[in-house]
Structure of citrate synthase (unknown stereospecificity):
Amino acid sequence: MSGLDDVIAAETRLSEVDGRNGRLVICGHSLDALAGQQSYEAVLTLLLPDVLSVCEETLRAELAQARLRAFQEVASLDTDLVSLSVTEALRALMARLPDGEDKSVALLQIAAPAVFVPALIRAKAGQQPIPPHAGRGHAADMLAMLTGNQPGDEQIRALDTYLVTVSDHGLNASTFTARVVASTRAGYASAVLAALGALKGPLHGGAPGPVLDMLDAVGAPEQAAGWVAAELGKGERLMGFGHRIYRVRDPRADALKSALNRLGASGGMDAHRLALAESVESAALTALRAAKPDRALETNVEFFTALLLEALGFPRDAFTGVFAAGRIGGWVAHSREQIETGRLIRPQSRYVGPKAA
Ligand code: ACO
C-alpha cells in the first residue's frame, strides 16, 4: 500500500514492463528489437507520433535545430550554476526553458539535456562548451559536445543503445510524477522538471554513480566476495541490484551488457574494469541469493549503465543527467498521454492522525 505496488494508475500504449518474464515492450516492439538496432530519434517517433514528426530524418533535423536553440542557455554559464552538481545544475537550466503543450516545447525539452549535460561537464572541468552540429544525430552530437571530437561508430551506437534502453519504462517514479504534473495542465516543461527531481534519488536514477564507487571500493576481483559480504553484513544495499517490478533479470541490463561487449570488442572499454565488474556482479548475485532466497534480486539497468557511461567518457556525477536525456522522451510522451485523458490525477489518503477534539 505505502509504495502503491499493485495500483494501476494509468493505461498506456507506451511501454509494458513484464516483471515476471523479464521483458520490456516499447510501443509494440520488444527492447531486443530496438536497443542496438534503432536510433533514439526512431524510438521518439514511436513514443510521440501525435506530437513529433513520424519521419525519422525530419525529426533528426528538427531535434538538431532544438539543440541549437538549447545551446543559447549554456553558451556562457554563471559560476553559481557550475558549482552545483550536474543534476542540480541541469534542473536549474531546465527550469529556464519555456513551458506549454505544443511541439516546439516538446522538442526543446527533449533536446535540452543532451546539450546541457555535456556543457555542464565541460564547465566543471574549466572548459568551454562545444556547440551542437545540425548535421549529426542526437547521440553522436551529445558525444561530440562532450569531447570536442567526432565519436566513433561503436561509441555512437553505444550511446544510442543506452538512450533507447532507458527511453521509457512503465509507471516508474519519475514518469508517474510527470503524469501527475501534466494532468494539472501545467505544461511539458513543468512535468519534466518535477520528473527530474524524482529521478535524482539514489533509489531511482541516482544509482549508477554509486555503482562505480562500489567498484572502486572493491578494488580487485579477488576482493569482491569479502567486500560484498561485509556490506550486506552492515545492512547496506548493493547498488545496481534489485528492482521493484522485475522478479527475474532486468532486460535492460542485458541490452546494455551487449552494448558494452561490442564497445569492448572495438577497443573502447578497459578490460580490467570489465573483469572487476564481472567479479563484483557474480559475488553480489551469489550473496544476495543466499541472503534473500525468497526475493530474486538480480542485476538491474544501473549496473551496466555505470560501466557504459564511464567507457563513453561521462563522469559519474553526470550519469543521472544522461539518464534524463534518454528518459525525457518517455516523460514527454506520458505527459501527452495523460493530457489526452483529460483527467486530473487526484488519489485519496486515509487519515490515521489523532481525532479532532
Ligand atoms: N542490496 C541488498 N539488499 C537489497 C537490495 C540490494 N540492492 N535490494 C533489495 N534488497 C533487500 C531489501 O532490503 C529487502 O530486505 P528486507 O525484506 O529484509 O527489508 C528485500 O531485499 C526486498 O526488497 P524489495 O521489496 O524487493 O525491494 P524494493 O522494491 O523496496 O526496492 C530497489 C527496489 C529500490 C531498486 C532496491 O532493490 C534497491 O535499493 N536497489 C539498490 C539501488 C538501485 O540499484 N537502484 C536502481 C533501481 S533501477 C532504476 O530505478 C532505473
Q: What stands out?
A: The first strand starts at residue 15 and ends at 18. The CA atoms of residues 349 and 355 lie 16 Å apart. The beta strands are 15-18, 23-26, 29-30. The chain has a mean pLDDT of 95.
